Amino acid sequence: MTTQMTSPPAVAGPVRKARRAESSYVARVGRPGFAWALPATLFFAVFAIVPLIMVAVLSFMSWNGLGSPEFAGLDNWRRVLDDPVMIKSIWLTLLLTALGVAVQTPLSIVLGVWAAGPQRNRAVLSAIYFIPLLLSSTAVSVLWRALLDPNFGIPAQVTWLFGDGNLFGEQSTAIGVLAFVSTWQFTPFHTLIYQGAARAIPPVLYQAAEIDGAGRYRQFFHITLPQLRTSVITSMIIMIVGGLTTFETVLILTQGGPGTDTTISAYYMYQKAFKGFDFGAGAAIALVLVIAATVVSLIVVRVSGYDKMRSTMEGVS
C-alpha cells in the first residue's frame, strides 16, 4: 500500500511570512529601555532605599539627636528585644491588623460589588460613601476624638449605651475605637478596588449562570468571589502593611493609653526616638516593622498562590 504525499496548504506560505514579519517587528521595537524607568528608579532610591539604609545604620548607633552618633553594636537591638513594652506593642499591632483585615475585607467586598451594579442612585450614594477617603488620617482622628469625647461627645449623651462614656479608659474599648475609626476611613479605599474588579468580570459568566438556574447568591459565591481573588489578595496586603505602620490614629486618639494598652510598635518607635531621644532604639524598632511587613506580605503572596498567577483575568491562574 502506498502512501500519498499531500502538499502543505497554500496558506502556509503567507502565515510563515506574517509570523516572520511579526517577529521582526517585535525585535525591532522591543521593550522600553532602562532609561524609561530611570526617573522612577532614582526617585525610589533617594526617598526609599537610601533612608532605609540610613535607618539600618542608625540602629547600630547611639544618638540622642545632638552631636555625632557613636557605634553601639547590638546594644539597641538587645534593649528593644528584651523590652516587655516592645513585645506587647508587637502583639497589639498584630491584633489591630488582624481586626482590620477581618472586618474591612468582607465589608469592602459587599460594598464594592454593590457599587459596581446598576442600582438607582448608586453613583450618588457611592460618592457620599467615599468622602472619608478624601480626608487625611490626622483629620479623621481629630474628628472622631471630638465625637467620642467622654465629656462632650456622643458617649456622654448616650450613657445608656456607653456607660460612663469614657471609651478610652479601658483597653478593650480603646482597641475597639481604633479598629472602628480605621474601618470607617479605609473601607472606602478597598471598596473602590473591589468595585473596579467587579466591573471587569465578563457579563457572559452571569448570563450563563442565569441560564443554568443559578440565583443571585450562588452567582456571588461561585462567580464573583472567585473572580475577585487577586483583588482580595492585593487588598489584604495593603491592609496588612497599613496596619503594621499605623501611627496618627493612635497618637491623636489614645496616645498609647490607657497606660501602654494601645501602644503599638509604630507609636512606641515615636516615643523612643522623639520623646526619649533614643534614636538608635527607635531606628531598631522601625527596622523591625519594615522586616515584619515584608515577611507577612511575602507569606500572604506565597500561601495564596498570587505569585503563580499568570492570567490577566481576575481569579484565573
TrEMBL record:
Highest taxon above the source species: Bacteria
Record GO biological process: transmembrane transport
Family matches, as Pfam families: BPD_transp_1
One GO cellular component term noted in the UniProt record for this chain: plasma membrane
SUPFAM superfamilies xref list: MetI-like
Entry keywords, A to Z: Cell membrane, Membrane, Transmembrane, Transmembrane helix, Transport
Family annotation (PANTHER family): ABC TRANSPORTER PERMEASE PROTEIN, INNER MEMBRANE ABC TRANSPORTER PERMEASE PROTEIN YCJO
Name by which UniProt lists this protein: ABC transporter
Lineage: Bacteria, Bacillati, Actinomycetota, Actinomycetes, Kitasatosporales
